[in-house]
Amino acid sequence: MLQSLQHRRVGYINTFRNGRIFIGPDWHLLLTSFVLIFVGSLLFICYTNTITAARVFVSLFSVLSLVFLLLTGLRNPGIAPRDAPPPPEASPREHRFVEYSYRKADGSAAVHKAEQKWCYCCNAYRPPRGIHCRFCDVCVTRRDHHCPWTGICVGGCNYRSYFLLVWSCFGLNLTAFIGGVRSFAARMHAAPSQRFRTALVSTYGIEFVLILFTVFWGLMVGMLAVYHSYLVSQNLTSGDGQRHMPENVFHQGGLFANAKATLCFQADETITNNRLDAAEEIVVTTL
Fold first, then answer.
1. Is the four-CA dihedral 116, 118, 119, 123 of positive or negative sign?
2. Contact, 16 vs 75, CB < 8 A?
3. Of 15, 67, 118, 192, which is most buried by a Cβ count within 10 Å?
4. pTM of the model
5. For residues 98 and 29, what is the distance between their CA atoms, to the nearest angstrom?
6. What are the tens digits of pLDDT across the range 191-204?
7. CA-based end-to-end distance of the chain
8. Which among 31, 6, 5, 8 is positioned nearest to 79, based on CA atoms?
9. Would you state the torsion angle of the CA atoms of residues 4, 31, 12, 154, taken in this order, to the nearest 10 degrees?
């Protein structure tokens, strides 16, 4: 027996199952990403490729990529709670500051004091290192960026799955490229004449198209994976990396400490803390 499906809307994000599932405004691109990975991997494994080891590794990386894609695109990125608009006679909001403990280049401990800005859209102070996303219309704790291919923002609460997604997709493209080139070369070697044309038409050009596809996306995802590995090693977000700060005030003193702070981040207060009451729209649907 199917249980009732609770649908609530926060900004441009739809939540289901009492905040267990989050669907962002670019859900159609999330679906496109899923279909591209699934169909491309299926064609490689079942139709075009002849290298057993390549098919095994592509199967593994495709499953990992799809799992991490869903974990990133359907999970709360770290949405900060909203409050009701203040009355017109309310006094202006006072300045509020938050302190960050970090390690300087010489290893000494230091404290950085940053202003916590007021968000007039959410009627609340922005969370630490949080930014109001104009695509999702919510404040996201430790927001990295808005990723249309996952359909939602990448924030502190879903960054780990996003980081693993990027590396899984890079592994998928790399193994598919190597396996595709070896398989195509084997077809050319076995052809008696017009080797390239024979190898090309033997799979109706699909294998060659997949090779070109993996070259393009492999380069894109590879650069993204390296860049985010650097951010993880420094405990930075993409926004932090673009600010050109004179000193990294989020550095925790070492690689493992920075990686732990980034990949094991836990928000102090997000919308999962049963604070959906300030959502713009609440709809309960029963299946």
1. positive
2. no
3. 15
4. 0.87
5. 36
6. 777 788 887 888 88
7. 9
8. 8
9. 110
